[in-house]
UniProtKB/TrEMBL annotation, chain A:
It comes from Zoarces viviparus. The keyword Signal does not apply. GO terms for molecular function: protein phosphatase regulator activity. Residues 381-404 are annotated as: Disordered. Belongs to the phosphatase 2A regulatory subunit B family. PP2A consists of a common heterodimeric core enzyme, composed of a 36 kDa catalytic subunit (subunit C) and a 65 kDa constant regulatory subunit (PR65 or subunit A), that associates with a variety of regulatory subunits. GO terms for cellular component: protein phosphatase type 2A complex. PROSITE patterns: PR55_1 (PS01024), PR55_2 (PS01025). This is Serine/threonine-protein phosphatase 2A 55 kDa regulatory subunit B. SUPFAM superfamilies: WD40 repeat-like.
From TrEMBL, chain B:
Residues 130-158 are annotated as: Disordered. Transmembrane segments: none annotated. Residues 147-158 have a biased composition (Polar residues). This is SERTA domain-containing protein. GO terms for cellular component: nucleus. Residues 47-94 form the SERTA domain.
Length: 447, 256
C-alpha cells in the first residue's frame, strides 16, 4: 500500500459526503467519533446527540469498480440518552465519546460505544427471514382461542425484506467517576479497558457488574493533582500490555503481568522540553490528545496540539519521528487559548500498513504523512470539491513572508471548522473524515 | 481602544499579537514569540503583557463554566497548572515585578490597558458581590486569614501584583465548581466595571480587603477573622499561601 499520495503514484479523490448541507448545524448532529471495523466493511460514526450511524460498504461489481469507496447507511440507533446525576446535580451528556468494534466472530457485528459515564455493548444483526405459522398465535401476534386450535402445524421460515437490528447486549455503568475518554478492546477479545481522567478499568465483555481498576492516578489529596489521563489503548498483539497518555505530554506503558494494579508503569515515554520554545502555553500544547498503536504493535503514535509523534516502543527518551501538523499556529497560541481551541482534542490514525499517518487540523484541513518518504500533504474536506471522483488539490498555508497564489494565509483560517476525528480503512486507501456534521469519504485514484 | 464594559473581540487579540510581534521585531529584527521569554526591556514588557493576558483569560475561563455541566477535569487541570506556572514566573521575577507590571498598565496598547485596569477591578467587584450573594459556605480555617492593605504608597506598588493574586484566589473559587457546590450565579454575570474609574481605585481598594475572594468563599468567618496590618511587602508570601488555600479547597471539594 502506498503512502500519502500527492506524487506520481496516486492521488486522493472525493467519494462521498454524508450529512445535511444546511449552514446552521444542529449541535446534536456534530460527529464525535468515527471508526472502521476490522474488515473495513462497516464504518461507524457517533454524534453529540447520542446516535450511532453505521455505514456499509457498497458491494463492488465488475462494471462499477469505482464503488470501492462508497458506503451506505446500514443501521442507525440511539445509543445513549441524556441523563441526570441526581447526587451531583449534573447533566450527563449523551454525546458518544468513542466507538470500538469487536472482531467479528459470527454473522453479527458487535461494537462498544461510550459517553462520559456508561459503556454499552451493541449487537448489530441482520434478519431476512421471519417465522410464520405458529400454533398459539396468529399472524398479528395475538393469542389464538385455544378451542379453535384443532390441528398442529410446523412453523416455517419465510423470506422477508432485510432488516438490520441493533440491540443493547451489555451495559457497563457506574464504574467511572470522571469522564470516560477512551475504550479499547483487548487482543484476547474477551476483555477491554476504559479510561477516564484519573482511572483505568479493565472489564470482561460478558460481565457488567464488576470491573478491575488497573490504574488510579487520583492523588490522596486532590490538591496534588497536576495531571490527568487523556487517552489509553491496549496493545494490538500482547494482551498484557497497554499504554496511557497524560496531560503533561508523557506516555506510560504498563504490563498487567507485573501487578494487578498497574500504578507503576513499565516504560515511561517522554521527550525533554526544548527550553527555547517555552511559553505559558507549553504544558497545554504538550498535552496528548490521542495515542494509537501501529497495527504491527512495534510503534505508537501520539498527537499533541501542534504535532504528531511516532514512538518506538523500545525507545523511551524521544520519538523516532515527529511531524508538524500546523506549526504556523505557534504564533497564534494566545488567540487559540482565548477562543478555547487550544483545548481541542485532535485524534490520529495509521493506515493499514503503518506506512502513513493521518490527523486533522483547522479550516477543515487534514494532514497525511508518509513515514518512508517523509512527504506530507494537506487536504481539505469541503463541499466545493465534492464532485464525484474529483481529485483533491493539496492545500498550503502561507507561513510568513509573501502569500503565494493558491496559498491561504493563517489569518483567514476558519477555526470553527475543525477535523478532530478521522479513520483509515484497515486494508485499503479509503479514509473517513468527520467535518462537524458531515462525514467525508475519500479514496485513492491510481494515475 | 475599547470603552469600558465593552467585550473584547477576537480581532483585538490579533492586534495585540501583531503589536507584540512588531515591537519585538523593532527591538531585535528577527525574533520569534518564544524569544520574548528571554529578551529584556521592551520584549520583557510584552512578555509581562502576555502573562497578564494569559492570567486574565485563565480566570475568565475558570469562572465561565456552564451551570449544571461538569467541568472537564483536563481543562481545569491545564488551566490551574498554567496559573501555577505564571505564579512561579512572578516569584522568580522578584520584587521589580510589581513595578514592571504597573508599567504595563500604563501602556497604551488596548489590551494592556484593558487588563491592567479591568482585571483587578473585576476581581474586586466579584469579591464584593460574593460577600453579598454567596450562600453560606464552610467555615474558614484560621491559616487563611486575609489581609488588608494600608498606606497608599504600598497600595500603588502592590496593586498589580495584588490583581494577579486576586485572580489566583478566583481560581480557588472556580475550582470550587469541580466539587459541584451550588453557588449563586449572580457573580458570573457580565460585570459592568464602568463604575470603577481609575481614580476611584485606591478608595475602593482601601475600603475592601485585598483578599476579596477568600472572603467570598468563606464569607461567614472571614469577615470576622480578617486582620489588618499586613502590608504589600507580604504579597509574594501571601501568593504562596493563596495557592495552598487553592489546594486545600480543591481537596475538600473534589474529593470523591
Amino acid at each position: 500500500m502506498a503512502g500519502v499520495a500527492g506524487g506520481n503514484d496516486f492521488q486522493w479523490c472525493f467519494s462521498q459526503v454524508k450529512g445535511a448541507i444546511d449552514e446552521d448545524v444542529a449541535e446534536a448532529d456534530i460527529i464525535s467519533t468515527v471508526e472502521f471495523n476490522y474488515s473495513g466493511e462497516l464504518l461507524a460514526t457517533g454524534d453529540k446527540g447520542g446516535r450511532v450511524v453505521i455505514f456499509q460498504h457498497e458491494q463492488e461489481s465488475k462494471n462499477r469498480p469505482h464503488l470501492r469507496g462508497e458506503y451506505n447507511v446500514y443501521s442507525t440507533f440511539q445509543s445513549h440518552e441524556p441523563e441526570f446525576d441526581y447526587l451531583k446535580s449534573l447533566e450527563i451528556e449523551e454525546k458518544i465519546n468513542k466507538i470500538r468494534w469487536l472482531p467479528q466472530q459470527n454473522a453479527a457485528h458487535f461494537l462498544l460505544s461510550t459517553n462520559d459515564k456508561t459503556i454499552k455493548l451493541w449487537k448489530i444483526s441482520e434478519r431476512d427471514k421471519r417465522a410464520e405459522g405458529y400454533n398459539l398465535k396468529d399472524e398479528d401476534g395475538r393469542l389464538r382461542d385455544p378451542f379453535r386450535i384443532t390441528s398442529l402445524r410446523v412453523p416455517v421460515l419465510m423470506p422477508m425484506d432485510l432488516m438490520v437490528e441493533a440491540s443493547p447486549r451489555r451495559i457497563f455503568a457506574n464504574a467511572h467517576t470522571y469522564h470516560i475518554n477512551s475504550i479499547s478492546v483487548n487482543s484476547d477479545h474477551e476483555t477491554y479497558l476504559s479510561a477516564d481522567d484519573l482511572r483505568i478499568n479493565l472489564w470482561h465483555l460478558e460481565i457488567t457488574d464488576r470491573s478491575f481498576n488497573i490504574v488510579d492516578i487520583k492523588p490522596a489529596n486532590m490538591e496534588e493533582l497536576t495531571e490527568v489521563i487523556t487517552a489509553a489503548e491496549c496493545h494490538p498483539l500482547q494482551c498484557n500490555v497497554f499504554v496511557y497518555s497524560s496531560s503533561k505530554g508523557t506516555i506510560r506503558l504498563c504490563d498487567m503481568r507485573a501487578a494487578a494494579l498497574c500504578d507503576r508503569h513499565s516504560k515511561f515515554f517522554e521527550e525533554p522540553e526544548d527550553p527555547s520554545s517555552r511559553s505559558f502555553f507549553s504544558e497545554i500544547i504538550s498535552s496528548i490528545s490521542d495515542v494509537k498503536f501501529s497495527h504491527s504493535g512495534r510503534y505508537m503514535m501520539t498527537r499533541d496540539y501542534l504535532s504528531v509523534k511516532v514512538w518506538d516502543l523500545n525507545m523511551e527518551n524521544r520519538p523516532v519521528e515527529t511531524y508538524q501538523v500546523h506549526e504556523y499556529l505557534r504564533s497564534k497560541l494566545c488567540s487559540l487559548y482565548e477562543n478555547d481551541c487550544i483545548f481541542d482534542k485532535f485524534e490520529c490514525c495509521w493506515n493499514g500498513s503503518d506506512s502513513a499517518i493521518m490527523t486533522g487540523s483547522y479550516n477543515n484541513f487534514f494532514r497525511m504523512f508518509d513515514r518512508n518518504t517523509r512527504r506530507d500533504i494537506t487536504l481539505e474536506a469541503s463541499r466545493e470539491s465534492s464532485k464525484p471522483r474529483a481529485t483533491l488539490k493539496p492545500r498550503k498555508v502561507s507561513t510568513g513572508g509573501k502569500r503565494k497564489k493558491d496559498e491561504i494565509s493563517v489569518d483567514s483560517l476558519d477555526f470553527n471548522k475543525k477535523i478532530l476525528h478521522t479513520a483509515w480503512h484497515p486494508k485499503d486507501n479509503v479514509i473517513a473524515v468527520a467535518a462537524t456534521n458531515n462525514l467525508y469519504i475519500f479514496q485513492d485514484k491510481i494515475n | 481602544m475599547l470603552g469600558r464594559g465593552v467585550k473584547r473581540k477576537w480581532s483585538c487579540l490579533e492586534e495585540l499579537e501583531a503589536d507584540t510581534l512588531r515591537a519585538a521585531e523593532k527591538e531585535q529584527n528577527v525574533e520569534d514569540e518564544a524569544g520574548f521569554l528571554a529578551a529584556p526591556s521592551e520584549s520583557d514588557l510584552s512578555r509581562l503583557q502576555q502573562r497578564q493576558l494569559v492570567l486574565g483569560l485563565c480566570m475568565e475561563k475558570l469562572r465561565g463554566y456552564q451551570a449544571g455541566m461538569e467541568l472537564s477535569l483536563r481543562r481545569s487541570v491545564l488551566l490551574i497548572n498554567t496559573l501555577r506556572q505564571i505564579q512561579e514566573d512572578m516569584q522568580s521575577d522578584g520584587a521589580s515585578e510589581a513595578l514592571l507590571l504597573h508599567g504595563v498598565h500604563r501602556e497604551s496598547c488596548p489590551l494592556g490597558d484593558e487588563f491592567g485596569e479591568d482585571v483587578p477591578v473585576t476581581c474586586l467587584r466579584c469579591a464584593e458581590d460574593d460577600v453579598d450573594d454567596l450562600s453560606p459556605s464552610p467555615p474558614l480555617s484560621p491559616e487563611f486569614s486575609s489581609q488588608e492593605a494600608d498606606g497608599s504608597s504600598d497600595q500603588q506598588k502592590s496593586l498589580p501584583a495584588a490583581a494577579a493574586i486576586n485572580t489566583f484566589s478566583d481560581a480557588v473559587n472556580a475550582m470550587g465548581y469541580l466539587g459541584d457546590l451550588a453557588l449563586d450565579m449572580d457573580i458570573f454575570e457580565d460585570i459592568d466595571t464602568s463604575m470603577y474609574e481609575t481614580s476611584d481605585l485606591p478608595s475602593s481598594w482601601a475600603a475592601g480587603s485585598l483578599w476579596p475572594v477568600s472572603v467570598s468563599l468563606w464569607a461567614d468567618e472571614d469577615v470576622k477573622t480578617r486582620s489588618p496590618g499586613h502590608g504589600g511587602a507580604g504579597s509574594l508570601q501571601s501568593c504562596r499561601m493563596d495557592l495552598n488555600e487553592l489546594d486545600h479547597i480543591m481537596e475538600i471539594l473534589v474529593k470523591t
